[in-house]
Each structure stands twice: as C-alpha cells, then as structure tokens.
Amino acid sequence: MDPSAVLGATSKLFKNEKMKIAFVALQLGYLTYKFFQNKKEIQHSKVLNK
Predict the structure, then answer these.
(1) Distance from the Cα of residue 25 to its chain's centroid
(2) pTM for the structure as a whole
(3) Is the distance from CB of 11 to CB of 23 less than 8 angstroms?
(4) What is residue 33's three-state secondary structure?
(5) Could you tell me which residue, 26 or 13, shows the higher pLDDT?
(6) Can you tell me the distance from the alpha carbon of 16 to that of 1, in angstroms, rounded to the nearest whole number?
C-alpha cells in the first residue's frame, strides 16, 4: 500500500482537527518529495541517453 494512502486513511480516523491537519501536511510533504525525486530521475536519464 502506498504510504500516501496510509497517511490519508489515518487522517480520517482522527477526530482531533489538529491531528488531521498534521497528517494531511505529512501526506503533502511525501507527495512533494516523490514528485521532485521522480523529476530528478527523469532528467538524469535524459542526460545519460544523449
């Protein structure tokens, strides 16, 4: 299971609003990290293929 999905599901289980916001922020941070990591890998593969 994707860690982002786990964080999203966990945030729905909490009734405390601050905990929900914290888990959504963690999810957003993880997705941003993965986006930039994938972008870096794509650029690296383009350089190697030239």
Answers:
(1) 9
(2) 0.61
(3) yes
(4) helix
(5) 26
(6) 25
Instruction: Determine the Cα–Cα distance for residues 28 and 4; give it in Å rounded to an integer.
Output: 8
pLDDT (tens digit, 9 = 90+) per residue, 16-48? 888 888 888 988 999 999 999 888 777 767 666
The DSSP secondary structure of 8-27, one letter per residue, reads HHHHHH---HHHHHHHHHHH
Q: How far is CA 33 from CA 1, 24, 29, in A?
A: 17, 14, 6
Residue listed under structure tokens 């405390």: 16
Contact 26, 7 (CB under 8 A): yes
- Contact assessment for residue 7 and residue 23, using Cβ atoms and an 8 Å cutoff: yes
